[in-house]
Automatic annotation (TrEMBL):
This is Peroxisomal bifunctional enzyme. In the N-terminal section; belongs to the enoyl-CoA hydratase/isomerase family. The keyword Nuclease does not apply. It comes from Oncorhynchus kisutch (Coho salmon). It comes from the Eukaryota.
Length: 716
């Protein structure tokens, strides 16, 4: 709703009230329509201020309402009515003015903001465009270049930047409502024509800026509809009168609203918030577990991951002891880390990195910290050695975390004096940039340890997801069948390019082989060696540990082709460290020789089969994970894939995508592929998937409840 009050003198104050962010629900819109009418009719009122309750102007349209039929007054005429008022109307912006919230403010004649306010048009991140006139008013106010940037990226900007761009009329450090009241009193009676943005001309697109932008957004967000529609709306603004531009905006918005992509992106928005409210099968959650405050931490091992973790911690203001026992590595890290910290702080607009880092080669130096993150090589015996040492040098009560990407947390906990204080904190490279953090709880991890790691993740700006302790945890466990299928497809006749192109066309920023070249083929090789699947003494067959196995990636790696770092991998590069992948005749000759050696006849494989085999195998493992209670719900898996594995956000996440494709269809295709490849257990449909199909394929939002019920009745 919106409340109305008349301040002493002649100013009407309209306050939006819809906690927590004063989203423009039907009730709020109705409230605005009614109160604006009231201000208009009251002869004693000469000017109006619109503000939001509890220090937040407005977080935009109410996203929760998008799933149902549109009720209440629509936004566009409501904003037009405000713009048409013949008394000055000012938006008093505190906290946020986002999406429809900023569009409402653009309909006001003046905009005054608190210096800490954030403004933006993030509709594109929800699969929409600023469809309440924002795509037409903003370029009229700040020009095409700046509007294009804000609308196609959806980024939030500070009040200072908004003032510079011309979005705001005034920024204050004081009470913003008082300031706005004073402002409108001052301007009461002045002509308003030039303040009505819809009546101003839009600058024309003289340098074909928008054509160039279209090419760019199509490249950058492959397959995503909203960024393209945003540019189209700006093209309309630049070339058509306002009314026709608004018609185009409405037409584009309707198309986007009805697209699966908008539903997927809105689901992704809510899943990010759902995973923050973690709960464990034991019943532990934020409600009953308190996080410990952390001000001093240590990182053990200063390879790529360790360095990134040090920077991520230091950026939160935590003092970090960075330990590396190899002198050469320590010397390199002590040069590299401060530079990384400086760069990242600059990127985030922070002046001086607040944390203090001390470098050491001595493990004894961690004795005073409250939390340690071990980031040594992915080798269980080495990690066990480190944990044994830590438990003897750290003071009692220190949290011991491992950045392992898939090793058994419980085994590490078992060698410590307080197994309850051991959890996994699985970062993704580069650790100071990537948003995802898997917080891995073992059977003995205490709720307090999980809460502390989750809280620390939040402080570092991560999307932290609590996951169970199983090989590969959630992300890498699902990656295994995906990679496996990609290798099998090469055996059967596909080329690395064909596989990568199908996946990139789906929306992944990089296909599996390009990604493997980037991360280094030796990484996977070492993990397979640790699992006893490859290495000296392992027989070179295509069946290992009772299932089909492709030795292809081992052979490429063993040929010294480790990917970008050696200039050769699944592709060739200009040289070691090269970035541009080119098809390599060596790989094609190698694949042909391999097929001939194993009597495999190459067949032509369609992109549809590539997608089904890779994605459905990955999704099937997601169902197994839910069945095993290693993730609390499909949202957890989807957040992990969107934030850590490049799953295209406009497809929501693998589990959401399964629902979009249809669970029946996924089941049928898995059955088909498993029938053709009975020696591939990952293609055997999971029991949970079968159960969901049997009960009529409920929507993804209902799975959590269904799984819990099935578990109670021991159906899973
Ligand atoms: C019609 C076409 C034109 C217009 C289109 C639009 O405006 S599209 C919209 C364009 N606007 C945006 O894209 C802005 C989206 N919102 C944000 O970016 C952030 O929420 C924030 C920066 C406003 C606050 O961050 P923060 O870290 O302080 O808090 P938090 O993120 O944890 O959220 C707290 C609670 O508020 C909830 N909630 C939030 N916004 C909305 C909403 N619009 N609606 C409904 N609910 C919303 C959120 O789900 C959560 O609920 P829970 O889990 O407690 O039940």
């Amino acid at each position: 709703m919106a409340t109305y009050s008349r301040l002493p003198g002649s100013v009407a104050l309209i306050t939006l009230q819809n906690p927590p962010v004063n989203a423009l629900s039907a009730a709020v819109r109705q409230g605005i329509v009614d109160t604006v009418q009231r201000a208009l009719k009251d002869p004693k009122v000469t000017s109006v201020v619109i503000c939001g309750q509890n220090g937040k102007f407005c977080g935009g349209a109410d996203i929760r309402e998008f799933a149902g039929p549109m009720l209440g007054p629509p936004l566009v005429p409501m904003i037009h009515a405000i713009e048409a008022v013949d008394k000055p109307v000012a938006a008093a912006i505190e906290g946020v003015a986002l999406g429809g919230g900023l569009e409402l403010a653009l309909g006001c004649h003046y905009r005054i903001a608190h210096s800490k306010a954030l403004l933006g048009l993030p509709e594109v991140t929800l699969g929409l465009l600023p469809g309440a006139g924002g795509s037409q008013r903003l370029p009229r106010l700040i020009g095409l270049t700046a509007a294009l940037d804000l609308i196609t990226t959806g980024r939030h900007i500070s009040a200072a930047e908004a003032l510079k761009l011309g979005i705001l009329d005034q920024v204050t450090d004081n009470n913003v409502v008082d300031q706005a009241v004073e402002f409108v009193r001052r301007v009461a009676g002045q002509p308003l024509d030039s303040r009505r943005l819809s009546t101003l001309p839009c600058p024309p697109d003289v340098d074909s800026l928008l054509d160039k932008a279209m090419v760019k957004v199509r490249q950058r967000s492959r397959g995503a509809l909203a960024p393209v529609a945003c540019v189209q709306a700006l093209m309309a603004a630049a070339s058509l009168p306002y009314t026709q531009g608004m018609e185009k905006e409405r037409e584009l918005l309707t198309t986007l609203f009805n697209s699966g992509q908008a539903r997927a992106l809105q689901y992704a928005f809510f899943s990010q918030r759902v995973v923050g409210k973690w709960s464990l099968p034991s019943g532990a959650s934020w409600d009953n577990s308190a996080a410990r405050p952390i001000s001093k931490a240590a990182v053990i091992g200063l390879g790529t991951m360790g360095r990134g973790i040090v920077v991520a911690l230091a950026l939160t203001g935590i003092s970090v002891v960075a330990v590396e026992t190899q002198e050469k590595q320590l010397a390199e890290a002590s040069q590299a880390v401060p530079a990384m910290l400086q760069r990242e702080a600059g990127r985030r607009g922070l002046a001086t990195p607040p944390g203090v880092i001390s470098f050491s080669s001595n493990l004894q130096d961690v004795s005073e910290v409250e939390l340690v993150i071990e980031a040594v090589f992915e080798d269980m015996s080495l990690k066990l050695q480190v944990f044994r040492h830590l438990t003897s040098v750290c003071r009692p009560g220190t949290l011991l975390c491992s950045n392992t990407s898939g090793l058994d947390i419980d085994q590490l906990a078992a060698v410590t004096q307080s197994p309850g204080l051991v959890v996994g904190m699985h970062f993704f490279a580069p650790a100071h940039v990537m948003k995802l953090l898997e917080v891995v709880y073992g059977p003995r991890s205490s709720p307090e340890a999980v809460a502390t790691a989750m809280q620390l993740g939040k402080r570092m700006g991560k999307v932290s997801v609590a996951v169970g302790n199983c090989p590969g945890f959630v992300g890498n466990r699902m990656l295994k069948p995906y990679l496996e299928q990609a290798n099998f497809l090469l055996e059967e006749g596909a080329t690395p390019q064909q596989v990568d192109e199908a996946l990139e066309e789906f929306g992944f920023p990089m296909g599996v082989f390009r990604m493997s070249d980037l991360s280094g083929l030796d990484v996977g090789w070492r993990i397979r060696k640790e699992a006893g699947l490859t290495g000296p003494g392992v027989e070179s067959t295509r069946t290992r540990q009772g299932r089909r196995y492709s030795p292809l990636p081992d052979q490429v790696c063993e040929a010294g082709r480790l990917g970008q770092k050696t200039g050769r991998g699944w592709y060739q590069y200009d040289g070691p460290g090269g970035r541009v992948a080119r098809s390599d005749p060596w790989v094609h000759i190698f694949l042909e020789a391999y097929r001939a050696e194993h009597d495999l006849v190459a067949r032509s494989i369609a992109p549809e089969e590539i997608l089904e085999r890779c994605l459905y195998a990955l999704i099937n493992e997601g169902f197994n994970i839910l069945q095993d209670a290693m993730a609390a719900g499909p949202e957890d898996i989807d957040a992990i894939y969107v934030f850590g594995y490049g799953w295209p956000r406009h497809h929501g996440g693998p589990m959401f995508h399964a629902g979009q494709v249809g669970l029946g269809r996924i089941l049928e295709r898995l059955q088909h592929h498993h029938h053709n490849h009975p020696d591939v257990p990952h293609l055997k449909p999971s029991t949970l998937l079968r159960r969901l199909v049997a009960v009529g394929s409920p929507p993804v939002q209902k799975w959590r409840e269904f799984i819990n019920k099935e578990r109670v009745h021991s159906q899973l």
